[in-house]
Amino acid sequence: MHAPFALSVFSAFATVAILGGSSSTALAQVALVKVDGSSTVFPITEAVSEEFQKSTKGKSRVTVGISGTGGGFKKFCRGEIDVANASRPISKEEMEACAKSGIEYIELPVAFDALTVVVSSKNTWLTSITADELKKVWEPAAQGKVTKWNQVNPKWPAEDIKLFGPGADSGTFDYFTEAVNGKSKASRGDFTASEDDNVLVQGVANDSNALGYFGYAYYEPNKSKLKALGVVGGDKAPKKGVAVSPSKETVADGSYYPLSRPVFIYVSSKSIDKPEVKAFTEFYLKNGGALATSVKYIALPDRTYTAALERLTKKQVGTAFGGHNEVGLHVDELMKRTPNLKYAAK
Asked: Tell me, what DSSP letter sits at residue 67?
């Protein structure tokens, strides 16, 4: 359920409860779990929340907002929500903001995503792109200068490039710019930006000269009108000189480089003491793999969910990333690290 609608429904029930005595008693038994953040992680959390609410037979309600990873962390570090959806690790600045508010957190990977580079299905001439070509398109120096396809590759047509991508509060934007341009948030600014991935889908689909990027789950149901480009990953890629397309297999084996990544939820250590939040998070880790697959994400290995449940049970607070993104890190390596609340120099 989309957050604004869920909150309005909750408010409506609250109004009824205030006006009617018996309804008030019933409402008091409905526990609320508040989630916000990444639009990339939203489809998984939405699927989990729906199944969780069914399992509680109306005793718990979950609201899921979409304010972007950065927007979610702002709310999370102010203590306004219980769980933050995040398509990248918590940053140094966000760690500091949480520390100032006395908010500690448990970092839990919940799925893999293939950050997908797309063109319209109307595009008949492009099937793959290199990491270097992506950088030529998206680096800050390209703003106002690289405006035609043939400026990126002389074999491509002299047509205007129409660019679509996530906004600055998006963790997908942060990860993409880190992986492609070498620095988080380093990007040209003259593109159509939106925190709503469906806006990006429609923008690219409707223009044969468009190029965009977003999570795989938004590509999969729209692949009749979009084309996912194979990516030639560069010197550090496991498969050198080969265009690799996003898929369950290429994400799991690490060959879809550098655009495959784990995605997360962060749970407030204060909120986890509330029975409904603890129950929701445990339900997420026990059922998230199957539900991630159902919404076209790539499930983590079973051992990873088991390790995450152990981390939750022990309330191991902190992050394994030290306040910055890491491109190409396999989730097995991630779960071997001990999370902490201190950031690391990069």
From this structure: S
Same domain, 203 and 275: no
For 338, other C-beta atoms within 10 Å of its C-beta total 8
Please choose, from the candidates 5, 87, 12, the residue with its C-alpha nearest in 3D space to the C-alpha of residue 45. Answer: 87
Indicate the number of domains in the chain: 2
Residue 319 counted as domain residue: yes
Residue 258, preceding bond cis, omega within 30 degrees?
yes
67 belongs to a structural domain: yes
The pLDDT tens digits of the residues spanning 163-177 come to 999 998 899 999 999
- 31-80 per-position pLDDT tens digit: 999 999 999 999 999 999 999 999 999 899 999 999 999 999 999 999 99
Residues 161 and 221 in one domain: yes
Q: How many Å apart are CA 329 and CA 59, to the nearest integer?
A: 39
- What distance in Å separates the CA atoms of residue 222 and residue 314, rounded to the nearest whole number? 41
Q: Looking at the domain assignment, is residue 344 inside a domain?
A: no
Residue 192 confidence (pLDDT) above 90: yes
Q: Both 122 and 231 in a single domain?
A: yes
CATH number assigned to the domain comprising residue 295? 3.40.190.10
pTM over 0.70: yes
Contacts of 18 (CB under 8 A, 6+ apart): 24
The rounded distance, in Å, linking the Cα atoms of 75 and 83 is: 10
* pLDDT confidence band for 195 (50 / 70 / 90): confident
Quickly count: other Cβ atoms within 10 Å of residue 286's Cβ: 13
Place of tokens 């950088």: 135
Look at residues 212, 234, 252 and tell me which one is the last residue of a structural domain: 252
Phi, psi of 259 (to 5 degrees): -105, 15
Structural domain span for residue 222 = 116-252
235 in Cβ contact with 108 (< 8 Å): no
